[in-house]
Amino acid sequence: MSLYIEIPAEFFREAREKCHPDVECPALLFGRGNAVETWRWVENKTASATQFAIDPEEMYRHLREAEERGLQLLAIFHTHPGPPIPSAVDVRHMKLWRVVWVVTDVYSWQSAAWIWDNRPKPVEIKQRRQPEADDAPA
Ligand SMILES: [Zn+2]
Q: What spacing in Å lies between the alpha carbon of 18 and ligand 1's midpoint?
């Protein structure tokens, strides 16, 4: 398995508009293979600046919707009020959700991606500049 994930640059543009230091800002990234095609911003149920939690029903709804479109959950995104390194809590959840974890520093907008493989292993982020094929006819 090659350790990279392709994410549309548009996603990070949206993150800069949507996310702020008051609340960690989660999103679910869906696609095929290593390429993210679409994403859903989700509510942080903790409303915390240093933690996040996603409502299981909201998670389930997005997973179902993606599955119906033939897409998989490729990554879980959230912001940190600091370096984009998984916290101890993140690591616990990374073990449960074996997808790529994308973390962005909400101040510097530096991003890093990780996947659990006996430890948080770095994943390269390739930003894709092309417009989305999301709404193109199948
Ligand atoms: Zn975190």
A: 17
- Does residue 134 lie in a domain region? no
**Strands 100-105 and 72-80, how do they pair?**
parallel
pLDDT tens string 60-100: 999 999 999 999 999 999 999 999 999 999 999 999 999 99
- Residue-averaged pLDDT of the chain: 93
Q: How far apart are CA 35 and CA 129, in angstroms?
A: 12
Give a yes or no: residue 123 inside a domain: yes
- Ligand 1 centroid vs 137 CA: distance in angstroms? 36
Active-site positions? Answer: 24
We report the CATH number of the domain holding residue 118 as: 3.40.140.10
The residues, any chain, with a CB within 8 Å of residue 82's CB and separated by 6 or more, are 105, 107
Give the predicted TM-score (pTM) of the model.
Answer: 0.91
135: in domain = no
